[in-house]
Amino acid sequence: MVEFIGMIRTSDQSEIRQRRGPLLDRDYTRRFAQAHEEAGFDRVLIGYHSWDADGFAVAAYAAAHTERLGFLIAHRPGFISPTVWARKIATLDQFTEGRVAVHIISGASDTEQRRDGDHTDKPTRYRRTDEYLDVVKRTWAATEPFDFSGEFYSVEGALSQVPTFSRPRVPIYFGGSSADAYRVGGKHADVYALWGEPLKETAEQIAAVRAAAEQAGRDPGELGFSVSFRPILGRTDEEAWERARAILGTIEGGAVPPAGNGSAPYVLGRESSVGSQRLLAAADRGEVHDRALWTATARATGAAGNSTALVGSPETVARALLDYVGIGVTTILIRGYEPLEDAVAYGRDLLPLVRSESAHRQAAPA
What we know:
Blueprint: E1 3-7, E2 12-14, E3 17-20, H1 26-39, E4 43-46, H2 55-64, E5 70-75, H3 82-95, E6 100-104, H4 110-115, H5 122-141, E7 146-149, E8 154-158, E9 172-175, H6 179-188, E10 191-195, H7 199-215, E11 224-229, E12 232-233, H8 237-253, H9 274-285, E13 288-289, E14 293-294, H10 296-301, E15 309-312, H11 314-326, E16 331-334, H12 339-363
Parallel strand pairs: 1-4, 1-16, 4-5, 5-6, 6-9, 9-10, 10-11, 11-16, 12-15
Antiparallel strand pairs: 2-3, 7-8, 13-14, 14-15
Helix pairs in contact: 1-2, 1-12, 3-5, 5-6, 6-7, 11-12
């Protein structure tokens, strides 16, 4: 069955909407999480930025106001000890009875990393992430004290008495589009997260990550794959495209300033991640790809984050998502330009179509 992930923030804002209310809006955060639960999402991603609210605390608050919704907490290794973080995650996983997963990101921008005191380069960050996850996973699994000595971390007699509620451990999602990312994610990830590229390029990335997993001694079939989009729905395809053009016009008009202390977000010009470069390359090849993939929003934002859209009626977008399921995608992360309203619409109009057809295909004989 396809897993659906949304995304929540602590304030009502987006690329087309200036923030309404305070940065930490308790009422909005509660309603946003509850809207995703009522819409039928499996999890919501809580992102990580050097200027934003702490994702761990946001997850704890949102979990206290929901009953079933899972939380995918983004985390950048390097700012906290892996043994400490392993216990923090296990504790929250226990209190939420298994509703926690983690999304590991090594950091795309040197400038943003330095805001939090990290002066390493990208290759070093990926080596550190690899070692960090070795220690975290060992902490979750250990029943006896253990020692670890590596390039970045050294612990003696480490043992956590806080087991994860999830078995065998908290799920690890991993993002990145570089060769280093494939190597580290292929070794550690349960679900490898990709941004929304055309089908051909997505299939190539899936193959590359599976090859890295095999090289790390894993069964590539163990890996799930996530892909991220910004669906723009209308009652008809024509209505959806009219709405899409209006959204693009607002972005290009510059009426809404970028987030993050008055400066651009985590993707910063020449420091753009490989994932952002790939989205922009897709935009150079064409504005519309495959059934409904639209790259104009990626170009307009500099591909700052997951920024490609799927445009059309719920039926058209559902078929487009199922095209990705057909090439090996197991998880779909979607968020809208009108964040809360779109989450409600996705739950009403889109998720049921994808799940129904996916179940039908799984039940059908080969």
